[in-house]
Specification:
The protein has helices at residues 6-17, 55-65, 129-138, 147-155, 158-168, 175-187, 195-200, 208-217, 263-266, 298-308, 332-343, 348-352; strands at 246-247, 275-276. By secondary structure, it is mainly α.
């Protein structure tokens, strides 16, 4: 067989490798294109002015939300405890971290955070989404990683240095930028297209049971009249079905309160056993319920408010009728209708929206 001279072979290889027709990825450049947040009929949120949403920033946050490098051993991402099919919640009573240890409270769902202005987590210890974003990374019971290690791992990955350039103008990875990008993505996670929303906008009809449940939900309990409302709307009203306050809903008597709740943040004894009032949107998918996940079903939750509320030094005054003998006097049909209404708050489009899925 005739041998090809080495010089000719090398020239051919060099010419082929440098073929100008080969596609070349352009260098990453800063992209300030604003992200158009569609909030539907919800009120315009008060978004942070120092972290304006951009297409590149939201995309970086989305990448980070699904990035397992944020954990100590590369086994967990934010999305592992906040799954889209479960309305970005965790259906386990307590999430398990990278060391196999359970958390101390039930993981709250990630949705409509743009309208949460009174702190994040059950005790409100994180003032803003950006503050909340970094805590699970560093928590020994969760991802158990250090921020310097996160920065080092992301800095060694060209996909991320390129995306940080697009989002922030240069390839520098910092923990602050990680938090800002995660904040941008999580602020875009809007749930506002449930059957209830369609009914409210005249595009759907509630069944008789759903409608009766709605009326019970939004009606006060009258101990002296014929009204037997469920009183739910006092704490779960408005477009997001939460008053965004911290309240003691009578789960435990004083001697039984093992979790300080809001008191651990404020130091105020009157905040003991007070917890953030969660949104009821997608509530049928986010069991178990309460800060400690003690209730497995909506029926158990309704039973608690009907006859299970316990008195304590900080129990909210709105529980006054729940505390009376016989409670709210809800019948079996009342309870079934309430559950039927609560299921109208499930937003199927939120559960499948490709904008919130893991990027390819």
């Amino acid at each position: 067989m005739k041998k090809i001279p080495f010089t000719l072979f090398a020239f051919t290889l060099l010419f082929t490798a440098c073929d100008p027709k080969d596609p070349v990825d352009p260098p990453a450049t800063y992209d300030a294109t604003p992200y158009n947040l569609d909030v539907g009929y919800f009120p315009t949120p008060d978004l942070p002015t120092d972290n304006k949403l951009t297409v590149a920033g939201v995309q970086l946050g989305r990448m980070l939300f699904y990035e397992k490098m944020l954990s100590k051993d590369g086994s967990q991402a934010c999305a592992d405890c906040h799954k889209q099919e479960d309305a970005f919640s965790d259906i386990r009573q307590f999430s398990l971290g990278v060391e196999g240890l359970p958390g101390k409270r039930q993981a709250m769902p990630v949705m409509n955070l743009a309208w949460h202005l009174n702190g994040l987590f059950w005790d409100g210890r994180a003032p803003h989404v950006r503050d909340q974003a970094l805590k699970p990374i560093q928590d020994p019971l969760e991802m158990n990683e250090t921020l310097p290690n996160v920065v080092a791992k992301l800095s060694a990955d060209k996909r991320y240095t390129d995306q940080f350039t697009r989002a922030f103008g240069d390839a520098t990875v910092t923990s602050e930028r990680v938090s800002l990008a995660l904040e941008q993505f999580m602020l875009t996670m809007v749930s506002n297209n449930a059957k209830y929303d369609k009914w409210k906008n005249g595009a759907a009809t509630l069944t008789d049971s759903e409608e009766r449940g709605r009326q019970l939900f939004f009606t006060e309990f009258d101990p002296f009249g014929s009204e037997r409302g469920a009183e739910c709307f006092h704490c779960h009203a408005g477009f997001n079905f939460t008053n965004d306050e911290f309240m003691n809903n009578g789960l435990d008597a004083d001697a039984e309160q093992a979790d300080e709740g809001r008191q651990k943040v404020t130091g105020n004894p009157m905040d003991k056993a007070r917890f953030k009032v969660p949104s009821l949107r997608n509530i049928a998918l986010t069991a178990p319920y309460m800060h400690d996940g003690r209730f497995a079903t909506l029926e158990e939750v309704i039973d608690h408010y009907n006859t299970g509320v316990k008195s304590s030094a900080t129990v909210d005054e709105l529980m006054q009728y729940n505390l009376q003998p016989g409670g709210l006097q809800l019948t079996a049909q009342d309870k079934a209708d309430l559950v039927a209404f609560l299921k109208t708050l499930t937003d199927e489009t939120f559960l499948t929206n490709p904008a919130y899925q893991q990027p390819e």
